[in-house]
Design goal:
Blueprint: H1 3-8, H2 11-34, H3 36-41, H4 43-68, E1 72-76, H5 79-82, E2 90-94, H6 101-111, E3 119-123, H7 132-138, E4 142-144, H8 148-160, E5 170-173, H9 182-194, H10 209-217, E6 224-232, H11 240-244, E7 250-259, H12 267-291, H13 306-332, H14 335-357
Parallel strand pairs: 1-7, 2-5, 2-6, 3-4, 3-5
Antiparallel strand pairs: 6-7
Helix pairs in contact: 2-4, 2-7, 2-13, 2-14, 4-6, 4-7, 4-13, 8-10
The structure holds ligand LV5NTVZW and [(2~{R})-2-oxidanyl-3-phosphonooxy-propyl] octadecanoate.
């Protein structure tokens, strides 16, 4: 093990990275709160400012993935589609099998310059996660309770609000609605069977209502659907812990650009279209399993320096102040101050441990775990 790799495996380094993320994130959240009055005066300026503030947070995770762990991300797509990426609004449909799939998504957003503005249809529970969940309020992220009776109005309204969004964004949809587990797969294939749909090997049966409502409420604003299929080399199941430990993964993403006009408007037709798309996605994963690659040419976007610069800025700032604080603490000799500081560090570690838990599939929800009729948790 080289010296750098040894450093990357040190718990103290992980604590420092997490501390920087949490404290800088809360500072940015507070700045976002201060921008609220702007909404009343100049909504578009509010949005542009918040895109940049959000970048300060999400790009830290991109920097850790790209520069700390050195994870490589390969893009399989045709050059004609490539020329559109980052220059238009798009709905991204992605498989949901991996704990860090959202980080890989963010990496591609950064490479095409849409990281700050990108959006997702996220489960409501994530809105309460400090830093990221709070940041999402100011980005007008669309939240759902995964209860259609309650979501149908709120989701449509939140999507309509994006019609006059001033900068290009990608809107991510995990149509499977939850992360892949063998149990959820088995149950969703029973549903597929009961609906007379072909079985999928690598995906859960997609939930079609969110897709239908998204496509129809973003019509006129969004140019295309990016059908994206992600996998990792060597059958890896990457984790955030692995990334923090400096483990290098290799992600492969296959993207097809599908013009929005080609997607049917009616609910039943749109649902049938999505089921067919997932059957195709399944065949791409089968191709990957057989050959170790996706079909089509590789066109790799280079990583950009901004995420690294932002991360180094925050790390430098906090390192300097932490050293100062440490020296002052020791020289003060006050047991009370030392105990309070230790308690603060423990609280940060516990908070971060809980946040990392949100990314872990083993700690995931029971949504999709129960047979038909469906009960949400
Ligand atoms: C060039 C590069 C390209 C790409 C780069 C890649 C990506 C980058 C892009 C952007 C990045 C931006 C941000 C990313 C950052 C972070 C993201 C992190 C996490 C957030 C993710 C989540 O929170 S996922 C969970 C929430 N989202 C969803 O659930 C979306 C999908 N769900 C839906 O659409 C649902 O329809 C719904 C939520 C709107 C409503 O759900 P509900 O359950 O109430 O209703 P449904 O109608 O869907 O369910 C009932 C129907 O389903 C059938 N059923 C029953 N059981 C099952 C089962 N087990 N499996 C499947 N189907 C089932 C049932 O029979 C009903 O059928 P109907 O025929 O009546 O519809
Ligand atoms: C700079 C690096 C610092 C790293 C350490 C700091 C901790 C950061 C933790 C970030 C937590 C952010 C959570 C948002 C992403 C959650 C992704 C996700 O995949 O959600 C799951 C849902 O889709 C479906 O849920 P399930 O029904 O499967 O349950």
């Amino acid at each position: 093990m080289g010296l750098l790799q040894l450093l990357k495996s040190q718990v103290l380094c992980h604590l420092f990275i997490c501390f920087v993320f949490l404290v800088s994130g809360i500072i940015v959240n507070m700045l976002q709160l201060c921008t609220l009055p702007l909404w009343l005066v100049n909504k578009q300026l509010f949005r542009r400012v918040n895109i940049r503030l959000a970048y300060c947070i999400s790009s830290q995770m991109v920097a850790v993935l790209e520069w700390w762990s050195g994870t490589e991300c390969t893009l399989y797509t045709d050059p004609k589609s490539y020329s559109h990426y980052g220059k238009e609004n798009a709905i991204v449909v992605l498989n949901h099998n991996f704990e860090i799939d959202f980080m890989c998504g963010w990496t591609f957003c950064d490479r095409f310059g849409v990281l700050g503005s990108s959006k997702v249809l996220a489960k409501k529970e994530l809105a309460y996660v400090p830093v990221i969940g709070w940041m999402w309020y100011f980005l007008e992220i669309v939240f759902c309770k995964r209860k259609w009776e309650e979501d149908r109005k709120t989701v449509a309204q939140s999507l309509q609000n994006l019609q006059d969004y001033p900068e290009n964004f990608w809107f991510l949809l995990y149509c499977e609605g939850t992360r892949f587990t063998p149990k959820k797969h088995e149950i969703s294939m029973q549903v597929a069977e009961s609906k007379g749909l072909p079985k999928l090997k690598y995906h859960l049966l997609p939930r079609t209502k969110g897709f239908w409502v998204t496509v129809n409420n973003l019509r006129g604003k969004v140019a295309a659907v990016y059908d994206s299929t992600l996998n990792f080399r060597d059958n890896e199941a990457p984790t955030l812990h692995g990334v923090l430990n400096g483990k290098k993964y290799h992600a492969d993403l296959y993207v097809r650009r599908i013009p929005l006009e080609s997607i049917p408007e009616g609910e039943a037709e749109c649902a049938a279209w999505l089921h067919k798309l997932y059957q195709e996605k399944d065949s791409f994963q089968e191709h990957y399993a057989q050959t170790g690659r996706f079909p089509g040419p590789i066109t790799n976007p280079p990583r950009r320096p901004w995420a690294l610069i932002n991360w180094l800025f925050w790390c430098g700032l906090f390192f300097y102040h932490l050293v100062l604080l440490f020296v002052q603490l020791l020289s003060s000799g006050s047991m009370l101050t030392i105990t309070a500081s230790l308690a603060f560090c423990v609280a940060v570690s516990v908070g971060v441990r809980w946040m990392i838990g949100q990314t872990e599939i083993d700690r995931g929800s029971t949504y999709g775990n129960k047979g038909v009729p469906l009960n949400n948790n």
